[in-house]
Design brief:
alpha+beta; 24 strands
Length: 497
């Protein structure tokens, strides 16, 4: 009983001692109880000592548990601090979608007992970080070696070319700020810089970017160059701007169901200043209505649109040129006045298959460019494209990243080696440009081929293309409206996404 009281009710121990003491007095009349009382007292002292040891042991256990809890809280806060704020990922949706870099995702998965290395390779890219992980830089880059081959006619020579040689750094500055700097060393026009921007990201619903980056229009344009399905973007892509200095607000809502971008730009090209006092404004929205439903048919379906408006004073109009750059079927005109662009787009990811389509239109005024300052008919360009790809080896086609083969070529270590991932592809594009004169012209192209992904970092593309021109006299082979081309690309990247 005394052992039970000492373990379960220590406060009752004193009462037990008093009861025992009273019992001893009750027996004192008939016999000497002093030896028995002494024995009981010694027993009680032993029980008290055991109770003290038990309490001390429990206190040590509680302290150890509290210490582990505190360590987990500290590690959780450190992991949150290491999380990279959303970067301007040019995904299939073309949205500046929040993402976490591979380096930071790896860090967040670390246990408290694992130290964060200051530099290294995380399986996707090289990184350098501060000891407290508040500052981090990831080295990114890729190179593309192309070959253009043409049917006989009046066209550029068959040639190899370094299409892109990009090298850059992206990362974070404190928890809510990130940046990117990227240049193209294959540029021969002294416009080495491609991306240079900083971003403030406190919440996924609102990010603020400023610097030079892509104007938000056209999903084909806004997807990373390193994750395109064909050697070149479709000729419809010539109707939309690329990078320009400016600022932009963007975000995602309702668990990525709704995405938006709105900004103001110069809109005149790389590092180009505006040629008038009106900035080019752009608005783009995208919906993925079944994004969060576990449906093979619906969760990869997205659609959206974009619109830009601005002015171009004494600039050049759009150019009509096919993907192979074999021939310019509409030379640019001088434009002056309002300029608008509209876009509609659709993406449907279905496991190993991917369907993408979009429509683009550009209207450019030619105010006071005629005789005696009269207005000329504007330049109107309309184009559309649709493409489908299918991975024969069964991998799931990523929406915005590189294909990861299940059986990599020459793989060593864990996993099995194989022949990589193989993909079939087909694309049709149609572009019509008119200026109210006989100069108006139309072209259409059909490209098909195969992509070979040896691993996430090395791939090879082969495109066979048929180009068709409406005006048979303005073609690489005058009198023949059809022309055949071959395009190929070997790509190496050391920053897989």
């Amino acid at each position: 009983m005394i052992r039970y009281l000492s373990q379960s009710h220590p406060a009752s121990l004193l009462l037990a001692l008093l009861l025992l003491h009273g019992s001893a007095h009750a027996q004192a009349e008939g016999q000497s109880v002093q030896p028995m009382i002494s024995s009981q007292i010694e027993e009680l002292r032993a029980e008290v000592q055991q109770l003290r040891q038990l309490v001390e042991q429990q206190q040590r256990v509680l302290q150890a548990m509290q210490k582990r809890t505190d360590e987990r809280e500290v590690a959780s806060q450190a992991g949150a601090a290491r999380s990279v704020p959303p970067a301007n990922v040019r995904s299939d949706s073309g949205t500046a979608a929040p993402r976490q870099s591979a380096a930071s995702a790896s860090n967040a998965a670390e246990t408290p007992d694992q130290a964060s290395p200051p530099a290294g390779w995380n399986g996707n890219r090289f990184f350098i970080r501060s000891p407290d992980s508040r500052f981090q830089s990831d080295i990114i880059g890729y190179a593309q070696l192309d070959f253009h081959g043409y049917q006989s006619g009046n066209h550029p020579p068959n040639t190899f070319l370094i299409r892109r040689a990009r090298l850059g750094v992206e990362g974070r500055l404190e928890r809510y700020f990130d940046y990117k700097v990227e240049g193209d060393f294959s540029d021969t026009n002294s416009t080495l810089l491609r991306d240079l921007y900083a971003r403030i990201h406190r919440t996924d619903a609102f990010q603020l970017s400023f610097g030079q980056f892509r104007v938000p229009i056209s999903q084909e344009e806004m997807r990373f160059d390193a994750v395109q399905d064909f050697v070149e973007r479709s000729m419809v892509n010539s109707l939309v701007p690329s990078r320009s200095p400016g600022l932009m607000a963007s975000g995602i809502l309702a668990k990525r169901v709704f995405e938006y971008q709105i900004g103001a730009f110069n809109g005149k090209g790389l590092l180009a200043t505006n040629n008038n006092g009106t900035p080019e404004t752009a608005l783009r929205v995208r919906l993925s209505p079944w994004k969060n439903r576990k449906s093979v048919w619906g969760d990869g379906f997205s659609f959206g649109g974009a619109f830009t408006t601005g002015r171009n004073v004494g600039g050049d109009s759009v150019r009509g040129q096919t993907e192979s750059r074999s021939f310019i079927f509409f030379t640019p005109e001088t434009v002056n006045g309002k300029q608008t662009r509209a876009n509609g787009e659709l993406t449907w990811m279905l496991g190993p298959a991917a369907l993408r389509a979009e429509y683009d239109q550009t209207n450019q005024e030619r105010r006071q460019l005629g005789a005696d300052g009269t207005d000329l008919p504007g330049v109107v360009a309309k184009g559309y494209m649709a493409q489908v790809t299918y991975l024969l080896t069964g991998e799931t086609k990523p929406e915005a990243g590189a294909v990861a083969p299940r059986l990599e070529l020459f793989r060593e270590g864990a996993g099995r080696a194989g022949l990589g991932a193989w993909e079939l592809k087909l694309r049709y594009a149609n572009l019509y440009i008119a200026d109210g004169s006989p100069k108006s012209n139309r072209a259409e192209t059909l490209f098909f081929g195969v992509n070979w992904y040896m691993n996430r970092f090395i791939s090879h593309m082969v495109d066979f293309g048929f180009e068709r021109f409406k005006d048979r006299l303005r073609t690489p082979r005058p009198g023949d409206g059809n022309f055949f081309v071959l395009l190929s690309r070997l790509q190496v990247t050391f920053s897989a996404r």
